[in-house]
Design brief:
Radius of gyration: 21 Å
Number of helices: 12
Distance between the termini: 30 Å
Length: 374
């Protein structure tokens, strides 16, 4: 049978044609399509200002700068995410302060955040792991109580909701990713949802060398910026994907339901929360029962590959990377995140999958894991 990857983007013929039209237009860098993409994203999140960038990492960095985060400041975040979440904190000269994750949601444990707040804390940076939103009610109550800004790393939760409201339609600064493995993609890219036009204008300057242009053709630079503008090529793809996003997420939820129905309980997998109210089901991530298995996670991944099934491992606890060990973090600091990071497997989940694909994965899980159980 054909190899089944853990993810694959769904690109329509209309989107391909839209990209070709841009290529033929003679204007392929940031232009009218990027502006149209921003307008469509703004409409999707209820009219808030949205600005696109070449990556969600750049959007996170610029958001920190807009919030005034810099040297001497602390930012509280999770150790269980793609490493960009903490890297951007270091990039602006601030200090990442990790807090362990909740063992059920696998998101930042808000019950532990308050103890980590110091006079140097400037901002909270939660992550919606696998598309399951952090409890926004508790998050913003905590931020308001302590006078802190919030930057939502919603890279994985485009189209997810909290209590009936789309993520990004409320709150403070919100960053989304359009990387190739996300629920919608522009190939590479991301965006930031902002609070007002002043923040949006600052973002525009930060993403293009700090430049301000004037009607008479002159320009000025009054802030240190970078180079992170999104091309019209990417924006044309993003526009087509955004139009399909809700349908994509509906299909993802249906596939997730099939996993819950057909994964054999006797395999001992710890399944993710069955949240069909808030999550966009970016990833379906059980935890291996490693203490009861005769094989390692690497051996499990290899065995599933031999079955024609691609498996991801998202994410190792980042505080154990050399970069953060050199800053004083050590094994045992955040035991829940470390345990989840060691045991997570990402099963195939993308809109083009068939019901039969899910059953194929479940049968392969049974063949690989059952003989290995102790």
């Amino acid at each position: 049978m054909d190899f089944l990857p853990f993810t694959r983007p769904s690109i329509s013929e209309d989107s391909i044609a839209a990209v070709v039209d841009v290529l033929r237009s003679g204007w392929i860098t940031t232009g009218p399509k990027a502006s149209a993409f921003e307008a469509a994203l703004s409409a999707y999140v209820g009219g808030r200002p949205v600005r696109v960038a070449s990556s969600a990492t750049a959007a996170l960095e610029f958001a920190l700068r807009i919030a005034g985060v810099g040297a001497g400041d602390e930012v509280i975040t999770t150790p269980l995410s793609w490493v960009a979440t903490a890297n951007v904190i270091l990039t602006v000269g601030a200090t990442p302060v990790f807090v362990d994750v909740d063992p059920v949601t696998r998101n930042l444990d808000l019950a532990q955040v308050e103890a980590a707040i110091t006079p140097r804390t400037k901002l909270l940076l939660p992550v919606d792991l696998a598309g399951l939103p952090v409890d926004r009610t508790r998050l913003y109550a905590l931020a308001q109580q302590h006078g802190l800004r919030v930057l939502e790393d919603a890279a994985q939760s485009m189209g997810a909701t909290w209590q009936g409201q789309k993520i990004g339609s409320f709150g403070d600064l919100v960053s989304f990713s359009f990387h190739a493995n996300k629920n919608m993609t522009s190939g590479e890219g991301g965006c930031l949802v902002l609070n007002n036009e002043a923040e949006a204008r600052l973002f525009e300057k930060l993403r293009l060398q700090g430049v301000s242009r004037f009607p008479d053709g002159s320009m000025d630079v009054d802030v240190l910026g970078g180079k992170a503008n999104l091309t019209d090529i990417a924006a044309a793809l993003g526009l087509g994907q955004l139009a399909q996003l809700d349908g994509f997420n509906t299909r993802r939820a249906a596939l997730a339901r099939l996993y819950f129905q057909h994964i054999d309980p006797c395999l001992g997998l710890d399944l993710p929360p069955a949240d069909f109210e808030h999550s966009n089901w970016h990833m379906f991530q059980p935890l291996l029962p490693l203490s009861r298995l005769r094989l390692s996670r690497a051996e499990f991944v290899a065995a599933m590959k031999a079955e024609g099934i691609g498996i991801g491992t998202h994410y190792p606890a980042m505080h154990l990377f050399t970069l953060f060990r050199e800053r004083g973090f050590a094994e045992g600091d955040f035991p829940v995140a470390e345990d989840i990071g060691r045991r997570t497997i990402t099963l195939p989940l993308f809109p083009a999958m068939t019901d039969a694909d899910v059953l194929r994965v479940c049968h392969a899980l049974h063949r690989v894991l059952l003989p290995a159980l102790i």
